Every structure is written in structure tokens, then in C-alpha cells.
Amino acid sequence: MGAVSDSGSSFIDVARETGIDIIDEDGAIIWTGPKGGNIKPVGPLSGKTVGCLVASEFSDFQAYYVASYIGEFGGRLEFIMVDKVTWKFTRPNIRGKGVQGMWGLSIDPIPVMGGDKASRNKTIGNADPRDYDAVVIIGGHSGDIMSTEPNVLDFINRAYDNGAVIGGIGGGIIPIIAAGIMKGKACTGNEQVSFILKKIAKYEDSHCVMDNRILTAKNTIDTPLFIHRLCKHFNRVFVDKRKDVLSGKTMLMICGWDFEDFEIAVPVMEFIYRGAKIILGTFTGATRARPPLLGLEVVQGNFGMSVPLQEISESCYEIKRLSEIDMGEFDGLLIPGAFNPWNMIEAGTPLEFLQKADAAGKILSYMCHGPIPVAAAGLVDGKKITGWLASKDAVVAMGGEFNPEWAVAMDGTHVSGRTTPELPEFIDAITAALLR
């Protein structure tokens, strides 16, 4: 693997602070053991239970991030579903069970989210507000739906009176306003709520504000800051060692048709939080799962996300055709899973791009099905690699060592992640690789 710089080695120590097992195996750094993809044993939210109130039309992006990181910081997450609102079913196929986000994410369960970080769901009728140290209301249009439900407003007030933190992001602040506990509080919020907050509260044009156990954030891109601020509330000595650690670095996300939504949304938000510049590199695959979109420049994920990203301003990232990106424009690339990796093989040109990036010494990171195009490009020989089981045959046939028991493997300039639940470990490993 070669020498590891002080900064890269130091960040591996930061990753170890979650309680994950990280070992050296014949020169490769391996994230391993039963804690991979699961709630971490230590962290600023350790021992805390966080309830996340959701109704249909919630923010998919924010839900992805909350599901990934509450447990990564040691907290126990429960999605509390407001699933009996009869006047608002934009997606009738889920009537009577669960809720669904603006772009198609369902809860109960969340697709592709194994492990125990998002395995507990309740309906609001079965949830006791006394059980939660914090109640988070994510944004999207679900806040509008919940603001008319007396049981939701009662739940918020009872949790607040019991000492819980009440947090809202963007439109998720609407039910907090309706519950009557925003009056006079220092706060922030997006365009949906700011005009009201300026009249009834002490509005600040900030990304995230805490006042007397009321935590507010402006937009989806502020979700990482929101979660870190929650961590600081519960652990006053918590030191955030991830903020802006990648300043000056650029990550390229390879986005072809049917990419895994989770594996773009969470890394984009987290890498931006860590200070990296983001390029979304698109290509035209031979297969498109949604023929009505033929001819459009939009690239769509497996569950409904798209490039351009629906919830994150284009000022936060750049979109370029993969064929137009020069090797000098980025430091590392990420290949998300689902069926995007197969499309990379069919398109052909992305494989040539991977070969050039590898020859240039760029960090190649890939997750789930992501090892498949790297194998097809002839770049896995002698590498220790993890991923979804569907990747095994491709990796082994091309000379790599595949182990699905590893959460993450960092071998030279290659970083592989097992599946969606291991996203936080995967992002930490990429960070360590970039800092070498």
C-alpha cells in the first residue's frame, strides 16, 4: 500500500473513534467486524434515541442522511410514520402502509438499507413521546401534511415538555410552528418558512441555529451540519473532526442510469460538508430503465433521484459529461452501485476513463456493484476488495480477492465499500485515502 501520510493515518484514527474495527491485512486497511454498517458503540449520540417524524412527501435526501449518520454517531433512530392521513396520498400504491418521499423513497422498510441503523419504525399512534431524547422533522412537503394533524402537534409538544430536542429542517419546521413552540426562538429556515419565522421568532440567515432545545436548519445541504449540531448538544466536549477536512480536494461521482440513490445523495452531502468540490460525471448508457425520459439530459437513479439533484442547488456542484473531464480536474472518483456499474460496461467509454484515472494515481472508490466495471477495466488484479455478492465473480475472475465480510477495504489507491449501510465507513476510508 505504500507509506501513509500523517494526515491520512490520523484520519484513520478519527474513524476508529466510532468503535469500528480497522486492521492492517497484508498492506491493505480493512474496516471489519460486526459493527460495520450498524449502530456504533461509542459516539456523541450514544445512549440517545432519536425519533424522526415522517409523512408522505418527505425529503428523500434528508432521510437518507439521517438513516446513515444517527447510528454512526451512536444514536438509536426510529422513524415515526404519520401514515393515516387520508387526504394526502400522492402515491396511492402505498395507501394504508408506510409513507413515501417526494422522489420515491419508501420507509418501512427503507430499500437496500440493511443493518440496524434504520431498522425500527413505528406509527405515530404506537410511539410514546417520552421515549425520545430528540424528535427530528425532516423537510420536503410532509411538514405541510403533518401541521394539520392534532396527534402530531400533541406529540411534538409532549416531547418538548419532557425535555427532548425538537429539530426541523426546511419545511420540517412547519409542524413546529403549528405546535406553538417557535415563538420568540432564535431560528433559521428556508423560503417555505422564513416569512413566518421573521414575524413570530428571531430569524437568522444562518445554516443552522439552536435555541432552548429548538434546532433548525435551512436546507437539505445543511443536514450534515444539523446532525453534528445535535451531537454537540448531547456531548458538549464533542469535537467535529470531519468539517472541511477535504478542503482543496475534488471528488468525481460517476452517475449513469439507475445509480443507487443512497450512494450518491449521502456522499455528495457529506463530501461537501467535509469541504470537497463535487463533480457529477454523466454518460449515456445503452440501457435506460425509464423510456419516457429518452432524449433528455436528466440521469435518473434506481429509486427516483436525478442528476441534476432535486434537493441540492446546482451552485453546490458541477455537472459534466464524463468524456469531457480531464484527469487534472479531480482527486478521486466514486462509482455508486445498483445498475449503473453494468451500464458503465455496456457504454465502454467509462471503462477507458477508469483505466486513465488509475494510471494517473487517482483514488478509485466503488461500492456494492461498483467493483464490476473496475474488474472489467482490468484494474483489480491482486487487490483486496469488498462489495455486494453480485460483484464476487467479476472480481475473482479478474484476479482480485473478494471478501463480503469486510465493511470497507482500502488497498493502495482503491477503496471498496460493501453495501449502503456502510456508507459512513466508506466515506471515512475515501477521506483517509485522499489525505494520504
Describe the overall structure.
There is one protein chain. By secondary structure, the protein is α/β, with parallel strands linked by helices. The chain folds into two domains: about 5-40 and about 245-435, Class I glutamine amidotransferase (GATase) domain (Rossmann fold), CATH 3.40.50; about 50-235, Rossmann fold (3-Layer(aba) Sandwich). The chain has helices spanning about 5-15, 60-70, 140-145, 150-160, 175-180, 190-200, 225-235, 260-275, 340-345, 350-360, 370-375, 390-395, 425-435, and strands at about 20-25, 30, 50-55, 75-80, 100, 105, 120-125, 135, 165-170, 185, 200-205, 210, 215, 250-255, 275-280, 300, 305, 320, 330-335, 365, 385, 400, 410, 415. A nine-stranded mixed β-sheet has the order 1-2-23-24-20-19-14-15-18, sandwiched between helices. A seven-stranded mixed β-sheet has the order 7-4-3-8-9-13-12, with helices on both faces. It starts with 5 loop residues before the first helix and ends with a helix.
